[in-house]
Design goal:
8 strands; 8-stranded mixed β-sheet
């Protein structure tokens, strides 16, 4: 069942910026690219918008996956895009992952509206190969779980860090 929630244009702009990688970005452009972004419902629950202040840039210091997990609100739902950099035995890859964060502790009403609005945002995110519904920190805190979503047992590093 659709909720009638619409996706704000800025969400689409952010998605396209993350999806389209310049062949030869200079270092400054690379650092400014978004690594991860959280999206939430607007106050009136009618639009999906970028959550202010909840983004990680490529040039930010530290482990982006750990930072991303810490950004997730413990008691409410969110949508997220995460630009995963990983290595298999054969090659290095970058893939966008669409994440639907719906923790057990979120209010039922919030879970229902986010679940029924998910298709609206997913339809706008054309070409996403990986989707992941996460229902709590136990599901996401270990980077191996994301590695499995990306390429199963062939993934050997995520964000430059070995999985072992």
């Amino acid at each position: 069942m659709a909720s009638g929630v619409t996706v704000d244009e800025t969400v689409l702009t952010i998605f396209n910026d993350m999806k389209v990688r310049k062949a030869q970005p200079n270092e400054e452009e690379r650092k400014r690219r978004k690594k991860a972004v959280l999206f939430c419902l607007s106050e009136d629950k009618k639009h999906i918008i970028m959550e202010e202040g909840n983004e990680i840039l490529q040039g930010d210091e530290g482990d982006p996956f750990t930072k991303f997990v810490k950004m997730l609100p413990p008691n409410d739902c969110r949508y997220a895009l995460y630009d995963a950099t990983y290595e298999t035995k054969e090659t290095k890859k970058e893939d966008l992952v669409f994440i639907f964060w719906a923790p057990e502790s979120a209010p039922l009403k919030s879970k229902m509206i986010y679940a029924s609005s998910k298709d609206a945002i997913k339809k706008k995110f054309t070409g996403i190969k990986h989707e992941w519904q996460v229902n709590g920190l136990e599901d996401i805190k270990d980077r191996k779980t994301l590695a499995e979503k990306l390429g199963g047992s062939s993934v050997i590093t995520l964000e430059g860090q070995p999985l072992d």
